[in-house]
Amino acid sequence: LSDLPRSELTCNDNNGAGYGFVPRKRARLDADESAGALMAAAAAQQQRMVLPPHGLVFPGDVQSRAVGCGAASTSGRAGNAAGLSQGLLSQLYHQGVEIDALVRLESERMRAGLEEARRRHVRAVVSTVERAAAGRLRAAEAELERARCRNMELEERLRQMTAEGQAWLSVAKSHEAVAAGLRATLDQLLQSPCAALAVAGAAGAGGAEGDAEDAQSCCYETPCGGDNAGADDAASKTPAAALCKACGAGEASMLLLPCRHLCLCRGCEAAVDACPVCAATKNASLHVLLS
After folding, report:
1. Could you tell me the CATH superfamily of domain 192-287?
2. Where does the signal peptide begin and end (predicted)?
C-alpha cells in the first residue's frame, strides 16, 4: 500500500509515519465553530448594548459565557435559537423597564392626587373650625356688649340712688332739726303754760292787725299767782287769744307747722290747709295740751 499514490484529500501523512484516514466531517466542524464564534461575538456585542439590572441573570448569559470561553456550538440552529432568545429577553427587559416607568409615573400621579385631596380636606376642616370659632367669638362679643350695657345701666342707677340717698339724708337732717326745734318749743310750752299763752297772744296780735280780739288778747295776761278768787275767775273765763282763729268758739290747741302758730282747734285743723294767722301752707300739726 505504500507504493500506491496518495491523495491530499483522502490521506494525511502523520509526520511520514504512514497513511491515515481523516474524517470528512472536519471541514463541517470548522465551519460550525467559526459560525458559533461569530454568533458569540454578536451576542456579546448585543449584551454590551443592553445591560440588565444588577442581580438579574438571563439564560442567554450562561450560553454567552460558554461561547466566550471557547465552547463551540454543535449546530447553527442552536446558535440561531440562542440569538432569538437573547433578543426576546432584551425585548422583555425593555418592556419591564417601560412598565416600571409607567408604574412609577402612575404612583407619582396617585401620590400627588392624594396629597392634593389631603390638602383640600385640611383646608375644609380649618375653614369649618374658623367659621365655628368666629361664630362663637361673635356670640361672646354680643354677650359682652350686653353685659357692658347692663353694667352701665346699673352704674347709672347706682348714681341716681346715691343722689336720692343724699337728698333724703339732707331732708332727714332738716327734719331732725325741725323736730328738735319743735321738741324744744313743746318742752317750753309744757313747762310754762302761762308763757305759752302770752306767746300765742303776741303771735296772734302781730299776724292780724286791726283785729280787736287780737289786740285784746295781746294785752290779756293770765294771772300765774295771787289769791284763789282771781284764779277761779281766770279759769271760768277763757281768754280771746286762746280761741280758734277759724271758728272763734273752740280752744286753740293745734300747733301748725312750719309757722308754729297755735291758732286752730282740732275740728278746724282738719279742714284748713293754710295758717289763718300768717297764711303759710300747713305741712303738719301738733296737738298741744295746755292744762
Report:
1. Zinc/RING finger domain, C3HC4 (zinc finger) (3.30.40.10)
2. none
